[in-house]
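Q: I have six molecules that I believe assemble together. Could you output structure tokens for the complex as a whole instead of separate predictions?
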Amino acid sequence: MSDLQKVSQKTLDFRRREEDILQRAQELFISHGEDKVTVEMIADAVGIGKGTIYKHFETKDEICLRLMIRYEEELAQVFIRLVDGEDKDSARLAKDYFSFRMNDPERYALFDRLEHKLTNTTSCPELVKNLHEIRASNMDQLTAIVETRISEGKLQDVPAYFHVFAAWALAHGAVALYHSKFYQEFIDDKDGFFDFLAEIGIRMGNKRNKDDD
Amino acid sequence: MSDLQKVSQKTLDFRRREEDILQRAQELFISHGEDKVTVEMIADAVGIGKGTIYKHFETKDEICLRLMIRYEEELAQVFIRLVDGEDKDSARLAKDYFSFRMNDPERYALFDRLEHKLTNTTSCPELVKNLHEIRASNMDQLTAIVETRISEGKLQDVPAYFHVFAAWALAHGAVALYHSKFYQEFIDDKDGFFDFLAEIGIRMGNKRNKDDD
Amino acid sequence: MSDLQKVSQKTLDFRRREEDILQRAQELFISHGEDKVTVEMIADAVGIGKGTIYKHFETKDEICLRLMIRYEEELAQVFIRLVDGEDKDSARLAKDYFSFRMNDPERYALFDRLEHKLTNTTSCPELVKNLHEIRASNMDQLTAIVETRISEGKLQDVPAYFHVFAAWALAHGAVALYHSKFYQEFIDDKDGFFDFLAEIGIRMGNKRNKDDD
Amino acid sequence: MSDLQKVSQKTLDFRRREEDILQRAQELFISHGEDKVTVEMIADAVGIGKGTIYKHFETKDEICLRLMIRYEEELAQVFIRLVDGEDKDSARLAKDYFSFRMNDPERYALFDRLEHKLTNTTSCPELVKNLHEIRASNMDQLTAIVETRISEGKLQDVPAYFHVFAAWALAHGAVALYHSKFYQEFIDDKDGFFDFLAEIGIRMGNKRNKDDD
DNA sequence: TATGAATGAGGCTTCATTCAT
DNA sequence: AATGAATGAAGCCTCATTCAT
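A: Yes, here they are, computed for all six components at once.
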């Protein structure tokens, strides 16, 4: 193996480990709650020393932020995949967006909690900025598509972000519901309920017929 | 003043102080974030000693839980007021419920965070149970009213809790939106947007006309 | 014992403990070197818990700074004592100043090291300012006296601080010498040597006779 | 290029690199303070890997010690140069010695701090011994010259080391003064002051005329 | 030989809770 | 009952040193 190969192999391993740390951290955060998870626990889960974590991330906060960025980047992939395909069906996008958001509710709930904790903090401001940039870009994608549908007369003619955020809100609420120990007890027919919600989500900004209530 | 009066005065003062602690704690939790607020800060805000807090509450967790219960009890009051009045208008209830939930979003967001932290903990299981009982009762009130509307043919004939939870989810999402530093930047017309959301909330489970999309 | 007495007793105890911590910390710093002394070691030496230290001092740095301030305040006492007495003999002052500085060389050496470490740090800037104020005041006392001697024609007519700092430098060097493991080996006749130094110190800024070399 | 040349070239490079490490380390120690400088920082400054440092020096302490030895060796050069020259003027030596000491006060202050830290440590006893040997040799040079001057009746007839150490002390104090953030503020006329000090240094052990104060 | 990823002991600090007064 | 000093477990992070490649 050449030196060059060795070096790139090392770099690759390093990246892989970074990914590993993020993945394990996410799992632990979800299952134990981010407050109960110590850096040492993450290190143990990955099978490395505490200090090694700090070769990859400056602080524990950075791990959290990187996790959030990763999520937002995955979301960006959803859009990229759609745009790459010839078929720019907006309904398809709405569905993909929703299913992405609802796909791993525990994970989303984690990021929701982290949002509150980290956004107010001064540590890693550049990462927060980075996160927000990706999100802004994702927002742009969504609003562009919604605007098309509005101009087609399919959706109520309100600012595009009204639709986007209404959808966001419903999805967000659905995720929270999914999590609440308490509310879960009442929902016998999960599939039925979430279908009901999805249907609402799809219909909710539609242009109203004059004879609607 | 008789001894009896003195005693009851003392009891009264004790209660008042308890209320005071809860109130100040809530304010601090909301403004600084529950993690950054120490028991000492609460004591200082109330103007008492740290030890005194522990005469009223066994642990810091108990304070949080009591705060959540208090919230749920206030919600119960909304229903009681409605039931006491002759007017059992369901639309009115929906509106009151929403406005209660949306009224103090920061507060609701706090309880949302606490929910996750405390529900998994074993620290005060009886209080958690208590909390859930009140909630269950509130749920019953809501579903009862929704069921009436369904039988009147106003709402889609799905399990009543579908409607309740859909409403809950939308309100929850709206609150989250209200908080997110990031998403806030995009919403220029707040009033317009939240009106839009409320309208969706009111319509969302309505029986569909056949010619709706 | 009245409540008032109890309270003042408590305050007194608290002060005493603070003094105790400072004293023990100083001893440990001198004997082990400030870097090797942990907060826990100090706590153990005082016979209290680690956390208790932090009721008295915000950081380890603060302990160091307070130690330096204490030293400078003691030096201020030397001047106060002289000024209170009717006898404002400048020679007496010079002697007192020197003997104070040389009295506990290990201690002075400690502060000399701390000076470098803490003055460049941003932690506790107000304490650093405080320290420098006391020093400035002490400097003023010294220069005032030196100015008198200059005007009496006893000392060379250069800015007063030339004399003060020359004295300071010699005393400082003497302290360092006193400490150096290496140089100590060469000095057999300590008393003789330090007398020699003191004599130099006293004479060193004197007005030169014309027939001096 | 022959193999032999290659080998010696390698050895030369190795030496040069060692010198490079020492030089960069010294610069960093002076500008950032020895505590804040990590081995990694030194490696980065030199442009090599951290591990490579340990091919040249066993520990970080060794780097410090080697730096001190280097200093003392340079001082030895001062004497050698003098002895090599025909002119064994003692005044010239005193001046050279002073100017060497005062030439790079920051550097000297560094070694002064290191002295305390390393001398008490057991980490590299043989290097400490080495350091002290060179110093002892330098001391011998100095005392020999001073003894000459005493026998010439130019200096007070006290043990020669009295004069040497007095000079050392004054120079040492001057260096410290030079550094103190605080005292610096008071010294407007630096050149004037240090000339004043130098003059004192030259005169200070002179035989006194009987009519001196 | 050069490298730099990995290590883990150890330091500083926080804070919920206890308890003697 | 009220207090607040005392506690110490626990967390985050640093960095000199090692070692496999």
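A: One point stands out. Residues 60-207 of chain B form a domain with the Tetracycline Repressor; domain 2 fold (CATH 1.10.357.10).
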